[in-house]
Prior knowledge:
The complex is a heterodimer of chains A (203) and B (160). With 203 residues, chain A is mainly alpha-helical.
Amino acid sequence: MSLALWALVGVVVVGMLLRMPIGFSMLMAGVAYLLVKGQDLGLVAEQVSNGLYNSYVLLAVPLFVFAANIMNAGTVSERIFDFCRILVGRMRGGLAQVDILVSVIFSGMSGSAIADAAGPGLVTIKQMLKKPEYTPGFAGAVVVASATLGPIIPPSHPDGDLCAGLWRFGRRAVFGRRDAGRVHDYFDDVCGALHRPQTQHAA
Amino acid sequence: MMRWFKKAADTFGGLVFLCLFLTFLVQITARFGFNKPLPWTDELAVILYLWAILWAAAFMVPEREQVVFDLVWNSVSVGTRRVMRIVGNLLIGSLALVAIPASWDYVHFMARESSPVLDFSFQWVFLPFVLLLVALVVRSVWGIWQAIKGQGLEAQGQPT
């Protein structure tokens, strides 16, 4: 590894170990790399600014979190939470079970792990911390693990792609490539209907 | 003074995000409601997004809400933590300080280009990155000062 690369890795690792914010450590690691390499330091500004300017899809992230916060403020999350508590709340480790069921329901609405963690996750953690049996670490771990259900359970973005892919694959397997009959068109419509809204809402 | 500045920064960030959200609503209505996508909403949303993200990183997110790795921090003594905090802030702060002139150079250079639809100068679009660097320097100085005074050195994120 060259000296510049060592500077890059070194600043990230040292910054992290010294309990500096990880994002800032990564940003400054870029500066250190350019400094050692003797290149123009303005490249960091150029890369970060243009990177953000061209990443339209990332706009979805703050808006997902915002949507989840609106749901919290409007007590939608709490209602779902209460519903799930009635269903599974009396089991052993009730609140953890409730959180998982809440995530299952919520992921049907959002399709995003981030929104799942920011919305019902926040409510569950608050409820868990009221009881001494649940430690903050356990609460965080359950919420993070269950939030990953968001992109897995059907109306989610990766799922839309997967469904469309499977339809196409199945259609080819059954009808072959040359068949251009009615059934074929029908399947194409289904694929389109499944696929299109999903990709558009993310882009 | 600090509190007033914090409040102003929070208000401004909130307004930027609100504008972003409203732009988004206009965009969605135009595209899916009237089937006529408006080009300026795309551009304005991205510009506001850039401002919101960098502004929030610079002035709004408090230190205890940053993502940090505190395994080492929590297992050493208060004296070591003080040294860690000073060295870490020195590292980040000095690198940010060194990067300011060149970054401002780049941002200022971009004044000759403007965004395609709205004709905003890119100097104003990219300005918050320089503000972020300045805020990092100020924060680092503040962090070192606090460490010398012995504040903010307690263990973080422990079960209570």
